[in-house]
Amino acid sequence: MREYLNALWELTKRELRRKYARSYLGILWSSLYPFLRMLLVVFLFSTIFDKGIDRYPAYYFTGYLMFEFFNVGSVTSVTTLRDNKDLLIKSKLSKKTFVMSRVNTAFINLLLGSIPYIGVLIYYKAILTPACLLIIPDLFFLYLFVTGMSYILSILYVYFKDIRNIHVQLLNLWRFFIALFYHVDWVSPGVRKFIELNPIYSFIKISRDCLIYGRVSEGRFFVQAILYSVGVYLLGSIIFEAKKNSVLLRL
């Protein structure tokens, strides 16, 4: 287990070096970009949405960080097996570690983006209660969900090269159905039900409630988050284990 964790950490560091090329400017940009994105959205939409959503900048920022972790983690993981084919053939490491290293890199980006996010929470006087601790299991289950999706996508890409472009386009559509910059109460009951059944919305809803408003979300959102994350992770693991050897022949 220790060797596995060490190998995973080394692969994650390699991905970080590749992403930032030992550039402090790149790290700074990863930290500031979500904040700048929030400022842009608030500038453009605050006159429309600000009056109806309490602490709107923090509301948007929370949703953006959570969705962006899923976005970056799943997109960068799609090409993992093909990008590392030489190492996969030569190394005895578990093939899953290569996928997880990219998910870990995306998670570190989330942590970097959380630095200015904490400042936003303080500025807008987020309500600090013990409910804030719920962000820990929320992030854990989101991590499971992203990892499971990444397993599936990395296998599919070996067989279908267009899966990356399809996934990116689906993500562009997906972000409109997670109540990222609007409130779910503003849409029709049918659309609202569809949004609330969206896997990513459950994670976002829990994080907004516990971090901004100091409250606990309805139990159904916790049930959905657990079922989606565990279900997708198990499905991804099963598919990955079933195809991990045969995909090497197609790389």
UniProtKB/TrEMBL annotation:
Membrane topology note: Multi-pass membrane protein
Transmembrane segments: 21-46, 58-81, 102-124, 139-159, 166-184, 221-240
GO cellular component terms, semicolon-separated: plasma membrane
Any one Gene Ontology molecular-function term assigned to this protein's record: ABC-type transporter activity
Limits of the ABC transmembrane type-2 domain: 25-243
Signal peptide start and end residues: none
Subcellular location: Cell inner membrane; Cell membrane
The family this protein is said to belong to: Belongs to the ABC-2 integral membrane protein family.
Originating species: Pseudobutyrivibrio xylanivorans
UniProt name for this protein: Transport permease protein
A GO biological-process term: lipopolysaccharide transport
Keywords: Cell inner membrane, Cell membrane, Membrane, Transmembrane, Transmembrane helix, Transport
Primary location class: membrane
Domain of life according to the entry: Bacteria
PROSITE patterns tied to this protein: ABC_TM2
Taxonomic lineage of the native organism: Bacteria, Bacillati, Bacillota, Clostridia, Lachnospirales
Family matches, as Pfam families: ABC2_membrane
